[in-house]
Design goal:
The complex is a heterodimer.
Chain A lengths: L3 E9 L3 E9 L6 H12 L18 E4 L2 E4 L5 H4 L4 E5 L6 E3 L2 E2 L2 H9 L22 H9 L7 H5 L1 H5 L5 H12 L7 H8 L13 H5 L6 H17 L4
Parallel strand pairs in A: 1-5
Antiparallel strand pairs in A: 1-2, 3-4, 3-5, 6-7
Helix pairs in contact in A: 3-7, 4-7, 7-8, 7-10
Chain B lengths: L2 H33 L6 H8 L3 H28 L5 H27 L2
Helix pairs in contact in B: 1-3, 3-4
The chains are: A alpha+beta, B mainly alpha.
Chain lengths: 238, 114
């Protein structure tokens, strides 16, 4: 192991350049540790975003040596090429400054995909009883641990080609709700995820599934949405 | 009908035609390998296809499935890779589907009837 890392960090907005820093290399060092070291010791104006440092909040995702990752749970030893690290803001999102991207459109897509639970029961009714072993519940469970980090959205080539594509995270959220038997907004949701900017634009390349730090498979959820939406369209239910 | 519903239906037809094509292509390849065993002459092939309604029916459906499948895919490619508008891509798809269908069915007619 070398004693120093040669780190290149993106500075600026859409237009900008990589700045080079030398950072001491430590055992069990994460990429977020490296960025924090640079900000605290070398470049106080470096802008980046993080909160929990333990892989729960989804705010520290960046592009590390060209691949989107959650930086707080990514060890330098795993991703450094020799002693080289290149850290850039997430792809497919506007850059606010340095390593911080504007996540508004990412979360607006969740809203467009009707990623919000629509209840029909009132507080006067009994709790819904959902069998934890039912197939729908199992499918919902598989997608529900998303932390909204944006790694999948940054890794998706279809988002690059068609910026209005809802993207893996929003569609995965819609898929978990489609499988929520309490939800009363299903038709509207299927319509929202149908079509050009929706699930049918997915090429099933699987970059989202490959890169998701929570090991969720949005590709599988999107395939499920494609089938449901197409069946509903053919039956004239949409 | 909204564009989203049309898109979903097109996806459905592309998928169904893909399933059909998987079957047709396999039978087609097997037939090809079998057919060339006795040499490859026009007379020999026409001797087998002339008046064969089984052959005509099989290849007519094959042509239609190929026309449907390829044209939907082509419209998508025009939109994503060439940046064409939705309507332009769809127009190209329809034109290509008609071209494939007419040329293909004409060929089927030629070897079965003509």
């Amino acid at each position: 192991m070398t004693t120093e890392l040669a780190v290149k960090v993106w500075r600026g907005r859409e237009a900008g350049e990589f700045a080079a820093y030398r950072v001491p290399r430590l055992d069990s060092q994460t990429v977020l540790d490296v960025v924090t070291y640079i900000q605290r010791n070398l470049e106080p104006t470096l802008t980046y975003r993080y909160a929990c440092r333990v892989g729960m909040c989804g705010s520290c995702a960046m592009s590390v040596n060209g691949i989107a990752r959650w930086t707080c749970r990514t060890h330098v030893a795993k991703v450094a090429k020799g002693d080289a690290l290149e850290i850039a803001p997430l792809a497919n999102l506007p850059v606010i400054r340095d390593l911080a991207t504007d996540m508004s459109e990412f979360f607006d897509k969740w809203a467009s995909a009707r990623g919000r639970f629509v209840g029909s029961a009132t507080r006067h009714e009994d709790f819904a009883r959902v069998d934890p072993a039912s197939p729908k519940r199992a499918v919902a469970n598989a997608g529900i641990e998303c932390i909204g980090c944006g790694v999948c959205h940054a890794s998706c080539d279809v988002v690059t080609w068609r910026p209005d594509f809802l993207g893996p995270a929003a569609l995965n959220r819609a898929w978990t709700l489609v499988n929520d038997e309490r939800d009363a907004g299903q038709r509207e949701r299927l319509l929202a995820v149908a079509g050009d900017a929706g699930c049918h634009a997915c090429h099933t390349q699987g970059a989202c599934t490959e890169r998701c730090p929570k090991e969720i498979a949005p590709t599988a959820g999107i395939a499920g949405l494609k089938r449901l939406v197409a069946k509903a369209a053919i039956r004239g239910e949409l | 009908m909204s564009s989203a519903v049309t898109e979903a239906k097109l996806w459905y037809w592309q998928r169904v035609s893909a399933m059909a094509l998987a079957f047709f292509v396999l039978v087609h390849l097997a037939t090809l390998i079998y057919a060339v065993q006795g040499g490859l002459s026009a007379a020999e092939i026409l001797g087998r296809t002339r008046g064969s309604w089984l052959f005509g029916g099989f290849y007519s459906v094959f042509v239609v499935a190929a026309a449907v499948h390829a044209s939907i895919g082509l419209a998508g490619i025009a939109r994503e890779w060439l940046g064409w508008k939705e309507s332009a891509g769809r127009a190209l798809g329809i034109a290509f589907a008609l071209f494939v269908a007419v040329m293909g069915l004409r060929a089927v007619y030629g070897v079965v009837v003509g």
